[in-house]
Specification:
Blueprint: H1 7-10, H2 17-31, H3 34-43, E1 48-49, H4 50-57, H5 61-73, E2 77-82, E3 85-90, H6 93-107
Antiparallel strand pairs: 1-3, 2-3
Helix pairs in contact: 4-5
Protein backbone atom coordinates (compact mmCIF):
# COMPACT_ATOMS: atom_id res chain seq x y z
CA UNK A 1 0.00 0.00 0.00
CA UNK A 2 1.44 3.35 -1.06
CA UNK A 3 0.37 5.22 2.10
CA UNK A 4 2.64 3.11 4.32
CA UNK A 5 5.73 3.60 2.19
CA UNK A 6 7.68 6.64 1.18
CA UNK A 7 7.61 7.48 -2.51
CA UNK A 8 11.20 6.36 -3.01
CA UNK A 9 10.52 2.91 -1.53
CA UNK A 10 7.83 2.32 -4.14
CA UNK A 11 10.45 2.26 -6.87
CA UNK A 12 12.61 -0.79 -7.36
CA UNK A 13 16.15 0.28 -6.51
CA UNK A 14 17.42 -1.36 -9.72
CA UNK A 15 15.25 0.89 -11.88
CA UNK A 16 16.47 4.36 -12.73
CA UNK A 17 13.95 6.35 -10.71
CA UNK A 18 14.97 9.49 -12.60
CA UNK A 19 12.95 8.21 -15.57
CA UNK A 20 9.92 7.62 -13.35
CA UNK A 21 10.17 11.12 -11.89
CA UNK A 22 10.45 12.53 -15.42
CA UNK A 23 7.26 10.69 -16.44
CA UNK A 24 5.52 11.93 -13.29
CA UNK A 25 6.50 15.51 -14.11
CA UNK A 26 5.08 15.12 -17.64
CA UNK A 27 1.76 13.89 -16.23
CA UNK A 28 1.65 16.79 -13.77
CA UNK A 29 2.28 19.19 -16.68
CA UNK A 30 -0.64 17.66 -18.57
CA UNK A 31 -2.83 18.04 -15.48
CA UNK A 32 -1.61 21.60 -14.93
CA UNK A 33 -4.18 23.23 -17.19
CA UNK A 34 -7.65 24.26 -15.92
CA UNK A 35 -9.35 23.35 -19.22
CA UNK A 36 -7.85 19.85 -19.19
CA UNK A 37 -8.84 19.42 -15.54
CA UNK A 38 -12.39 20.46 -16.38
CA UNK A 39 -12.44 17.93 -19.23
CA UNK A 40 -11.30 15.24 -16.79
CA UNK A 41 -13.97 16.27 -14.27
CA UNK A 42 -16.62 15.97 -16.99
CA UNK A 43 -15.25 12.57 -18.04
CA UNK A 44 -15.31 11.37 -14.43
CA UNK A 45 -19.10 11.07 -14.78
CA UNK A 46 -18.80 8.84 -17.87
CA UNK A 47 -17.67 8.91 -21.46
CA UNK A 48 -18.44 11.92 -23.59
CA UNK A 49 -18.02 12.92 -27.21
CA UNK A 50 -16.11 16.02 -28.27
CA UNK A 51 -19.39 17.88 -28.98
CA UNK A 52 -20.62 17.34 -25.42
CA UNK A 53 -17.32 18.47 -23.94
CA UNK A 54 -17.19 21.55 -26.19
CA UNK A 55 -20.76 22.51 -25.27
CA UNK A 56 -20.07 22.13 -21.54
CA UNK A 57 -16.82 24.08 -21.73
CA UNK A 58 -18.08 26.68 -24.23
CA UNK A 59 -14.89 26.02 -26.20
CA UNK A 60 -14.54 25.13 -29.88
CA UNK A 61 -14.45 21.47 -30.85
CA UNK A 62 -10.95 21.93 -32.23
CA UNK A 63 -9.85 23.44 -28.91
CA UNK A 64 -11.26 20.47 -27.00
CA UNK A 65 -9.70 18.05 -29.48
CA UNK A 66 -6.31 19.67 -28.94
CA UNK A 67 -6.61 19.26 -25.16
CA UNK A 68 -7.77 15.66 -25.55
CA UNK A 69 -4.78 14.91 -27.78
CA UNK A 70 -2.46 16.00 -24.97
CA UNK A 71 -4.35 13.91 -22.41
CA UNK A 72 -4.41 10.93 -24.76
CA UNK A 73 -0.67 11.15 -25.40
CA UNK A 74 -0.09 10.79 -21.64
CA UNK A 75 -2.54 7.84 -21.37
CA UNK A 76 -4.79 9.91 -19.11
CA UNK A 77 -7.83 9.46 -21.37
CA UNK A 78 -8.76 6.85 -23.92
CA UNK A 79 -11.14 6.92 -26.82
CA UNK A 80 -13.35 4.69 -28.89
CA UNK A 81 -14.95 5.33 -32.26
CA UNK A 82 -18.55 4.66 -33.09
CA UNK A 83 -19.06 5.49 -36.73
CA UNK A 84 -17.81 9.06 -37.16
CA UNK A 85 -18.29 9.88 -33.48
CA UNK A 86 -15.36 9.63 -31.05
CA UNK A 87 -16.08 9.04 -27.36
CA UNK A 88 -13.58 9.78 -24.60
CA UNK A 89 -13.29 8.42 -21.08
CA UNK A 90 -10.76 8.41 -18.26
CA UNK A 91 -8.03 5.87 -18.94
CA UNK A 92 -8.52 4.06 -15.63
CA UNK A 93 -9.54 4.46 -12.00
CA UNK A 94 -6.10 5.85 -11.10
CA UNK A 95 -6.87 9.06 -12.98
CA UNK A 96 -10.08 9.53 -11.01
CA UNK A 97 -8.18 8.74 -7.78
CA UNK A 98 -5.62 11.46 -8.57
CA UNK A 99 -8.39 14.00 -9.17
CA UNK A 100 -10.30 13.06 -6.02
CA UNK A 101 -7.17 13.07 -3.85
CA UNK A 102 -6.19 16.49 -5.19
CA UNK A 103 -9.60 17.98 -4.39
CA UNK A 104 -9.50 16.36 -0.94
CA UNK A 105 -6.07 17.87 -0.36
CA UNK A 106 -7.29 21.32 -1.39
CA UNK A 107 -10.42 21.13 0.78
CA UNK A 108 -8.63 19.63 3.78
CA UNK A 109 -8.26 22.04 6.68
Amino acid sequence: MIETKGLIQIFDQDIASEAVFHDMAEIFKALGDPTRLTILALLSTGEKCVNELADNLEVSQSGVSHQLRILRSMDIVRYRKEGREVFYSLADEHVQDILIRTVEHILHE
